[in-house]
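Notes on consecutive records. When two proteins share a document, each keeps its own sequence and its own token line. Never mix them. Below: protein one.
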Amino acid sequence: MFKGVEHTALASPNPRRLADWYVNNLEFHINFEYAGNYFVKAPDGTMLEIIPSEGEPLKPAMKTPGIRHIAIAVDDFDTAHAHIREKGVKFLGEPYETQGNRLVFFEDGDGNFLHLIQREKPLP
């Protein structure tokens, strides 16, 4: 009956600008738009919906309650890291390895937390 997560929504003061950020930096594409809302789709089919925000943004920290980051899977960590570094993204630290996985945290165009991850072994 339940198939999985179809998309996750991000609220942005400028949805088109943020959608373009995902297109220009992470190889997503805009696959649907309506009334100022944009769906961006990753090469693997996962989607984000970017909707118009209302009110003042909150500045979350890495472990405050709520959704804290979006993990972007890569098959070549070094190439992906170099690609987004060349694009001028804001990194939150240096790449590191844990349990055989390589990670680096960064921010999207609105300051949402993301990280690249290359897993040594897929999760079960």
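Protein two starts on the next line and is unrelated to protein one.
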Amino acid sequence: MSKYAEKAAELRAIVEPHYNCGQSTAIPFAEGGGVSEETMRAICANFGAGLKRKSTCGALVGGVTVLGLYGVNDQETVDEYYKAFAENHGGMTDCGALLADNEAKGNEQKPFCDGLVQESVALVEKILKEKGLI
């Protein structure tokens, strides 16, 4: 497990204060991108629960935030990131749809969301490594 994945797991295990999926995805990369963990926590405060609206998955948005932080803002790479995530979930990227599908399969929410965080961290880490940014 990479240091980014370990940090994300650590954050998701903390009960109080709660770290949402976006925060847990982005914070492991914060300091390497020149931002404090506290600042990244504030930036991503509204990313949980699909931007608090069950829309785009917060872990996915946290990953896009990290890509931007590291200067990766080209359409092709962002599309690649979204596509890789969506392919793993039957084309779904919205929190509400992902959670409904997970519930229909009889799975618990927290482990599922923890997995989405780990997936997003791994995808971002792969992209940043390929671009020589980490």
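For the record: DSSP finds eight helices and no strands in the chain.
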